[in-house]
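Below is a filled-in request sheet from our internal design queue. Each sheet records the structural input a requester submitted and the sequence that came back. We keep these sheets so that new team members can see what a complete request looks like end to end.

REQUESTER: design group, bay 2
PRIORITY: normal
MODE: inverse folding
CHAIN LENGTH: 333
BACKBONE (tokenized):
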């Protein structure tokens, strides 16, 4: 295991005091899917491993893609329910930044499980190692965990096993963290907002809250931070997305809408709540619908992509520096 306790430059005082590297395996990607296993590696302020923890979780439903995570119904039948492990998990997450590879997904799944258990997740911030690798300009062929691991010489033993994935990520995160410290890179930390309620049937939201895009969950309303990159213009077919592009979403999505938006934000895109002449791209699975966004997009000539194509492009978003300089333009989005 790598050990890099010393750096030439002083350690940044603004960096977090501890991290919880997390991986969860799930029954699928949708808002009603469940966690089947979870692992946490606790790291100190400089990324050194303190301890680790792993548990199976009975999802109380079909385990989903067994060919990926290898956990059958028979294996999970005697596993604890999430409420039975929530306290142990909370102890390992408390007062630490949650670190994950595609952190928006892991946080989204955890937040929903905590909400179902009527417990508040003790997580205030998360850090996505995909976003960090982009900040560091690592020469990776793609943003898969195996590519990040190979870059730092970390050997994977059991891919898609939560404990081994968390170990691999912990070992790859440590040198990434030290590289960021040496270069004075600001860590791409994002705020985590827990779900406020969860119900298996439609409910009336409490006053002061607004519903999410799925009828089964309610989230506190929030305002996203401003995108730090200038808008490079419209998306062009056969070219990558670029940081700063304004992306709007319309209609139902197979992956939770907030999760998609978080992925877009972590990739450096601007999530727009409406469509204007400045919008770079509209994502919708029903381009023939007559929603206000699709109608405006067609009238403005805004490019339209479906969810599958968009998530594929999210794997490799071009950095803002690769875009041609563009004069700042005021936006109403």
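RETURNED SEQUENCE:
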């Amino acid at each position: 295991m790598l050990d890099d306790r010393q750096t030439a430059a002083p350690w940044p005082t603004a960096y977090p005091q501890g991290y919880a590297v997390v991986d969860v395996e799930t029954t699928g990607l949708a808002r009603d899917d469940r966690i089947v296993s979870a692992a946490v590696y606790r790291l100190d302020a400089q990324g050194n491993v303190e301890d680790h923890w792993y548990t199976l979780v009975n999802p109380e439903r079909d385990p989903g893609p067994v060919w990926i995570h290898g956990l059958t119904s028979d294996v999970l039948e005697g596993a604890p329910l999430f409420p039975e492990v929530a306290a142990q998990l909370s102890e390992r997450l408390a007062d630490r930044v949650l670190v994950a590879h595609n952190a928006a997904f892991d946080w989204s799944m955890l937040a929903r499980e905590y909400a179902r258990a009527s417990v508040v997740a003790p997580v205030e911030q998360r850090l996505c190692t995909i976003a960090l690798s982009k900040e560091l300009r690592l020469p990776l062929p793609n943003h898969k965990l195996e590519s990040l691991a190979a870059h730092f010489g970390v050997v994977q033993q059991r891919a898609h096993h939560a404990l081994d994935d968390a170990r691999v990520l912990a070992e790859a995160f440590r040198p990434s963290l030290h590289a960021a410290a040496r270069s004075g890179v600001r860590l791409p930390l994002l705020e985590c907002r827990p779900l406020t309620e969860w119900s298996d049937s439609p409910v009336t939201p409490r006053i002061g809250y607004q519903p999410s895009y799925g009828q089964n969950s309610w989230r506190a309303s929030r305002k996203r931070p401003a995108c730090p990159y200038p808008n490079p213009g419209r998306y062009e077919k056969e070219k990558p997305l670029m940081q700063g592009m304004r992306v709007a979403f319309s209609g139902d999505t197979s992956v939770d809408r907030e999760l998609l938006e978080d992925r877009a934000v972590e990739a450096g895109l601007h999530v727009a709540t409406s469509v204007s002449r400045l919008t770079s791209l509209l994502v919708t699975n029903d381009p023939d619908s007559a929603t206000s966004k699709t109608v405006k997009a067609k009238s403005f000539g805004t490019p339209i992509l479906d969810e599958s194509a968009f998530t594929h492009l999210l794997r490799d978003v071009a950095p803002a520096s690769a875009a041609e300089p563009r004069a700042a333009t005021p936006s109403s989005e």
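SHEET NOTES:
- Residues 283 and 307 are 6 Å apart (CA to CA).
- The radius of gyration is 20 Å.
FILED BY: M.R.
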